[in-house]
Every structure is written in C-alpha cells, then in structure tokens.
Amino acid sequence: MASKGKKKDVKRVVLAFSGGLDTSVILTWLQKEYGCEVVTFTADLGQGDELDAARKKAELMGATQIFVEDLREEFIRDFVFPMFRANALYEGAYLLGTSIARPLIAKRQIEIAEKVGADAVAHGATGKGNDQVRFELAYYALKPDIKVIAPWREWELTSRTRLIDYAEKHQIPIPKDKRGEPPFSADANLLHISCEGKALEDPWVEPEEYIYSRTTAPEQAPDKPAYVEVAFERGDAVAVDGKRLSPAKLLTELNRLGGEHGIGRLDLVENRFVGMKSRGVYETPGGTILYAAHRGIESITLDRGAAHLKDDLMPRYAELIYNGLWFSPEREMLQALIDKSQENVEGTVRLKLYKGSVSVAGRKSPMSLYRQDVVTFEEGAAYDQKDAEGFIKLTALRLRLARMRRR
Question: How many CB atoms lie within 10 A of CB 218?
Fold first, then answer.
C-alpha cells in the first residue's frame, strides 16, 4: 500500500480504461484513495467493444479528461507488421497477440500524461500476470521518472465479489453479466483474442466450443477449400487477392477468411515471465495466414544464410516482446537486422485454407532466388554436378581426420 505522503504527491493520473468492472472500480478507487484527478485513455485496437460506452461511463464517473482513440492502423503498421517480419513465435507456437498490444497502449498513455501534465499512470493488470511487467517496462523506458500506480498490488479487493461489493457501495454501474462469476477472462484486439482462467485452468480438460468467438469449428468449416493470394513489399503484406489494403483492413480481411475456415486456434501452456505456467486458448485467424504467407515469400527471396540467421534470432526476439521489452535497445538492434533482411522480400503467395489448416500452394517474386535451370533434373548449364565431389571431400575432411585420430 502506498503511503499517504506519496499519495498526496499525485495530482493527476492517466488510467488505461476499458470501461469494464475492474477499471471502473480503479477509476473511483484512485479518486478516493489518492484524491487526484483521473484522466482516462481508451484505445481502439480492434477489440470489437463499443467504445462510446466507455466514454459515457468515464463521464458519468467524473473523469476530468477522456481520451478515446482509434489506434488500429498504427497498431498493425508499427507493431504487428514489424513483429511478423521476424516470424516471431513465443515457445514455438504463440503469435504474441496480447504481448504486442501493450507497448502501444503504454506509449500513448505516456504521451497523454505529458500532454495533460499528469504525475502518474495507472493500469488494471493483476500482480500475477505478464501485463503488469509489459506496461511498466514500457512506461519507464519512455518516461523514466513517471510514477506508476498498480491498484491490484495495493488494494485489498482481492476477489470479484469484493470488487462488486465496492462497486455497489460507491454506485459504480455494473453490467448484468459481470454479477455472476464469468467462466473465463478474455483480452482481444485486431490480431487475436486470448482466453484464460476459471474453466480453462485444468490443462487436461479440452476447451468447450463456447470459448471460441472468432473461428468456426474446423469440423463445421466449409468442405471445399478456399484459396487466397497475399502480396508483399519489403516484408509487409500490402494486398489480398490483388486488392491493395491498409494494414488494419488487410488483417481484418484475413481474419474473416481465417475465421470462416477454422484457422488459428491454439491451446497452449506457456511459461509466464513472472515465473509460473499458465494455460491460454488463443484465436489468431488472420495472423496465422499472414505468418504462413510471410514464410512462404521468404522461402524464395531470402538467402540461406540470412534465413537461417533470422531463425536463430527469432526465439530471442519473440521472448523480448513476450517479456515486455519492445522499447529495449536489444529489440531495436534486432529489428534493424530483421528489417535489412526484408529489402527483397516481395512477391505473392497463394495459400490454401481448409478446415483449420493453412498451407502454401504457390509463391512467385520478381526478386526470387529460386532458379529452375539450377534445380532441374534435366540438362542445365548453371550447375556442374562434378563440382560436388570436391565440395563433399572438403566438407568431410574434419570428419575423416577425427576418425583417423581415434584409430
């Protein structure tokens, strides 16, 4: 619990505000415990919520200033696309949908704090999760002297029942569906939706179908496969089926296609940065298609050494994002290397979508390194098969010497 002296130092705080039960309670709690002005910030990252409702709730609850901003294009262009250039997967499976959203929210919070002259920023992440780390590392990287308020680490409202009791006591509006115990918690944006907790805590129990909201069950997906073409320039997707689209609109279209065909479901037990394992169920339909398409175009445009170096670095890059280190110098250094590798990654990939799977069905590029005259089994002038003998002997030399030594 923060001391009363320190609380008096806070005159104005910028709160990341969703309008849900937790952040609504936090808004009132900050006003009462810190006696400060609360400025709310609500980001539209494509989560699908009615953001006008959050604005009205903030007004009703006495927020001194209210910021509601559409950040979908910036989110995909400046955060998701750079991450996808790296083919980033955390622990070989997770496309980092929640992780990559936090640095943008934190960045905008700090910008608003500077604009309104706030002393502090606040978030609603719990003390057991990764998000508290992601938010706060970003805050401190961007404004080292900012004060951070994390109510879940200070207050004694340690259960949903206590939150509801507090809300009722202070006349905070509570949606009817929040009065019962929800079966799981969810976090969504344009890249994905994640679900965890409650009904999902036993990793042996298969998720019920009601958990999924963005994808058709693969068993119920169309019996006929669909094909989609994704075009790339400098490593970023720019068009779907020949139609150029903005980053957010492009991912929205891939989400629609992937959702129809049951693509992008993941049931994962992962290692949180804070030290525990957690089970999450993710839906990333458009991102799963985009990942397959990007690897497909890289397969014909990236040199072997560059491609293998990228694959070596990818787990480290993915871990940095998962752990909240987007604004770290090492992530920025890796990004510069990755972006350099993408200079010739352009062309078109054709993908087959069928009952939960996405596979590359074709790829072409004006910058392709694939040479049919080199790989053909027919007579070709670009490769002399006799050259392989010396190559093999030189490669084998150290192996032969090691065996001879043993003898």
Answer: 14
Which tokens go with 397?
């030399």
Number of structural domains (the chain) is: 2
User: How does strand 226-233 pair with strand 37-44?
Assistant: unpaired
Q: How far apart are CA 29 and CA 210, in angstroms?
A: 34
Q: Do residues 103 and 245 lie in contact, with contact meaning Cβ atoms separated by under 8 Å?
A: no
- The answer to whether residues 152 and 124 touch, using CB atoms and an 8 Å cutoff, is yes
| Domain assignment present for 127 | yes
Domain boundary among 142, 159, 183: 183
| Cα–Cα dist 109/394, whole Å | 59
The domain in which residue 177 lies consists of 4-70+102-183
Strands (DSSP E) contained in 292-396 are 347-354, 357-364
Domain-located, residue 17: yes
pLDDT value, residue 379 = 63
Q: Looking at the structure, tell me whether residues 210 and 338 fall in a common domain.
A: yes
Q: Are residues 254 and 348 in the same domain?
A: yes
- Please give the Cα distance from 76 to 83 (Å, whole number): 10
Residue 380 covered by a domain: no
Residue 39 belongs to domain with CATH number: 3.40.50.620
Quick: pLDDT tens for 360-384: 999 999 999 998 777 666 665 667 7
One-letter identity of residue 343 = E
Query: CA dist 316 to 60, 181, 186, 325, 329, Å?
Result: 45, 38, 27, 11, 13
CA 171 to the chain's CA centroid: 35
SS3 191: coil
Which residue numbers are catalytic? Answer: 22, 102, 131, 185
Q: What's the predicted TM-score (pTM) here?
A: 0.93
